[in-house]
Amino acid sequence: MSTPHVVISDVTRVHGHDETRVVALDHVSLEIHPGELVAVMGPSGSGKSTLLNVAGGLDAPTSGTVSIGGETLGSLSPRDLAKLRRRRMGFVFQDYNLIPSLTAAENVALPLELDGMRARQARRAARHTLDLMDLMSLSDRYPDQMSGGQQQRVAIARALVGSRRFVLADEPTGALDSHTGEEVLRVLRERCDDGVAGLLVTHEARHAAWADRVVFLRDGRVVDTTGAADDAEDLLASGGPR
């Protein structure tokens, strides 16, 4: 077994204080190995997106630790944490987060350019990734010239460009039709097969079927884990883990 690339150890995340106190994550532990895609499922408010944000260093745990590639996020300065996210993580959000004044190719190339890659080289890498996503024809379009589904696919291309070793996706197919959504998940699966660690938040069993492992959350706790997509579908069909 390879050394895990992502180690989430006994993480708790609490929002608010006293009567407004909400425990979003409650002593959650999870490891993700290179080449592994882990799906996280659970009802609304179960802590899925909070787990993704903590795993990606966008939110700090109240207690517990998160390590990426052997580096503990809590020990990094804000600058070093931003550098680690830029170089080694790719994020896919539900709301795209594309920059309106940049074309698709420029949006995808931006993380590489921010990391010091020359513009021409970054744009070449961006166009290659857009081509993998069947978006080459959109490379010179701006976000407001694209449909919501097209914008989401550009956002996914941005998360996959370069040598990212950890990809985090929060409902990445929410704005896509079923066929396009399956193509997007196929690309994510292929990147994981090439050695990337992947964390996918989803509410659909057919999307979780692309994962190696499915983790179920309820009230901020891990309540079940299955290693087989068919088992996940059966479990959900029976009303979910108890």
TrEMBL record:
Residues 6-241 form the ABC transporter domain. It comes from Phycicoccus sonneratiae. Keywords: ATP-binding, Nucleotide-binding, Transport. GO terms for molecular function: ATP binding. This is ABC transporter ATP-binding protein. It comes from the Bacteria. CDD domains: ABC_MJ0796_LolCDE_FtsE. Pfam families: ABC_tran.
